[in-house]
Model the fold of this input.
Amino acid sequence: MEREIDLPKPDQKKTKIECIRCGSIMGEITVCHLKCLNCGAELTCSDKGNFW
Done:
């Protein structure tokens, strides 16, 4: 099953966040919820400030 997650477009000024588990670029699900498309690790609002 394929899921679409909005990744930053080249003209947008968003910082790309690397996964803390595998180093891949994470996809943004919501403003403060990121998910790695490679290994499935997630960062949420409670992680903000510690990792990004």
